[in-house]
What we know:
Layout: H1 2-8, H2 10-28
Helix pairs in contact: 1-2
Amino acid sequence: MNFVSIHHHPISAGASGQAHDFAFRARRRPN
């Protein structure tokens, strides 16, 4: 299912993924 989103909006999906990962790491490690 994610493949469709990535193929449909590669740039948007990439940016969203990075932002999500960054937020997730920041939340997990409140440094």
